[in-house]
Write a structure and sequence with these properties.
This protein is mostly beta strands and about 120 residues long. About 0% of the residues lie in helices and about 60% in strands. The chain contains no helices and eleven strands. Strands 2, 4, 5, 6, 9, 10 and 11 form a seven-stranded mixed β-sheet that branches. Strands 1-3-8-7 form a four-stranded antiparallel β-sheet, with no helix packed on it. Strand 5 and strand 6 form a beta hairpin. It is elongated.
């Protein structure tokens, strides 16, 4: 069973920065790689929206985060990161990680993390 464990959320002042992490782990055996990692966010009452995606050597960003957020990966740590700068109150949301994870037992499957709250105070 693969789990995506997110961390790094919290409370930050407007203009500040946070780095979110999404690490894949398994209860037994080993995780070999994350093929595609995507960060989403959702505000209560609104639809979930894609924030950033990384696959292979390519990245894609929502227009509202371009120039402020950077998605990256550490293949050795099986982790996807989201570095966020110049945060504003509009970035307040629950951020969730979604990843296509390949393991030798199950091949590639899609998983969701539990979500981490990011709150930006103005």
């Amino acid at each position: 069973q693969v789990q995506l464990v997110e961390s790094g959320g919290g409370l930050v002042q407007a203009g500040g920065s946070l780095r979110l992490s999404c690490q894949a782990s398994v209860t037994s055996g080993s995780v070999f790689r994350i093929n595609r990692g995507t960060w989403y966010r959702q505000v209560p009452g609104k639809q979930r929206e894609m924030v950033a995606m990384i696959t292979g050597g390519s990245t894609d960003y929502a227009d509202f985060v371009k120039g402020r957020f950077t998605i990256s990966r550490d293949n050795h740590k099986i982790t996807v990161y989201l570095q966020m700068h110049s945060l504003s109150s509009e970035d307040t949301a629950v951020y969730s990680c979604n990843a296509d994870v390949w393991t030798p037992v199950n091949g590639e499957r899609n998983y969701w993390g539990q979500g981490t709250q990011v709150t930006v105070s103005s």
